[in-house]
Amino acid sequence: MNLISITAILLLAFVFNSQNVSPTFGRKMILGVVVNDKIDEASGIVASSKNKGVLWTHNDSGNKNRIFALDTNGNDLGIFYLDGIENRDWEDIAIGPGPVDGLTYLYIGDIGDNDKQYNSKFIYRIEEPIVNIGQSFVDSTIADISTITLLYPDENRDAETLLIDPLTKDLFILSKRNTNIRLYKATYPQSTNEIINMELEVKLNFPKDPEVNEPFNYITAGEISSDGKEIIVKTYEDIYYWSRDENESITQAMSKIPLGLPYEKEPQGEAICWKPNDDKGYYTLSEEEITVDSVEFTFPAILYYYPRTSLVDVEKNTNIPKVFSLEQNFPNPFNPVTTINYSIPAVTDAKFASTTNTVLKVYDPIGNEVTILVYENKSAGKYSVTFNANNLPSGVYYYQIKVGNYSATKKMLLLK
């Protein structure tokens, strides 16, 4: 699709439904190659809010009955098998609330059906395991599994997108391949003893591909944000976004014309999810194999991240800084402890989108690095860090902050 076509779609979306307002996101960041070679057909991904920095993924049809835990650099944390469950065609995974308040659940969607041959679709619900960053590799089996069995109200369909509304606990499936994409709902509480007839909610109005005048209908993954306010859906070519107003249902929100978000095409990329904390961008994950004209190519599976660079309601939130700042340390002079405050705004300038990494270092008078106080990704906000110079001699020192292309340096005096 050319730039003119994309621009036309987005302009039409704005004209016909200006209420669907989007934040802005930067270009993709490569977080790392997925270490575990068994993750070769990743079809879904979610980020844990319970285990910060942990991602869950799985392979699709014909693979083993297992989910994988990895960190946000692609390092392997563990494999968890679902005891007695078949991976007929696992196509997406969702994360959210469930029958016990206060617990977090994973929902694995066995909803793929390329030939529309299966009457029943299955969603397997498990309590999210506890996984910690940096832990030793875990190989475990989960026995406590609830099976939700679903039927479509009209006909068998292929699907690759499973959503859970964190506000209502309703489950949604978005169909694939149809000219009009269909949104189906299984209302909470979902029975695990009886077959559930899903409700057809709406036929979605996706933008059309100008080359064939048909909607983009290869929907491969999606997720509702943990606060229920944002919805994201992925195809092989594009990413679409809906905002959800207060007191609006998922069906009402997704009936609006979606807006496009940044996406750089991956080899057979089928997985997407929100980051539940910090800047709240979105992750994507590619498969390792792709077939073109009957020739199979193999690529490494890579974890990508698109950082959020501005917020919809940034002007309304007085707690979000409007500019970068590095404040003078206090007290100054100091002996031997001082505090340094700094601020990071919700960035809207594209030149800062290449990185969200924040680095704060201390140097001696001739430019030698003394210590690193901060070296991590930071979202918009006001921060404070303590510097302890107990092992340093009296004298002048300098502290410098770098965030993207922004840099600032200040001087401080240690008196003992």
Description:
The chain has 416 residues and is mostly beta strands. The strands form ten sheets. A five-stranded mixed β-sheet has the order 3-4-5-6-10, with no helix packed on it. Strands 7-8-9-11-15 form a five-stranded mixed β-sheet, with no helix packed on it. The N terminus is likely disordered. It folds into two domains: 307 residues, Tachylectin-2, Chain A; 90 residues, Macroglobulin (MG2) domain (Immunoglobulin-like, Sandwich), CATH 2.60.40. It has two helices and 35 strands. A hairpin with an 8-residue loop joins strand 7 and strand 8.
Short account of what is shown:
The protein has about 425 residues and is mostly beta strands. It has two domains: about 5-310, Tachylectin-2, Chain A; about 325-415, Macroglobulin (MG2) domain (Immunoglobulin-like, Sandwich), CATH 2.60.40. It has helices at about 5-15, 250-255; strands spanning about 25, 30-35, 40-45, 55-60, 65-70, 75-80, 90-95, 105-110, 120-125, 140, 145-150, 160-165, 170-175, 180-185, 195, 200-205, 210, 215, 220-225, 230-235, 240-245, 260, 270-275, 280-285, 290, 295-300, 300-305, 310, 325, 335-345, 355-365, 370-375, 380-390, 395-405, 405-415.
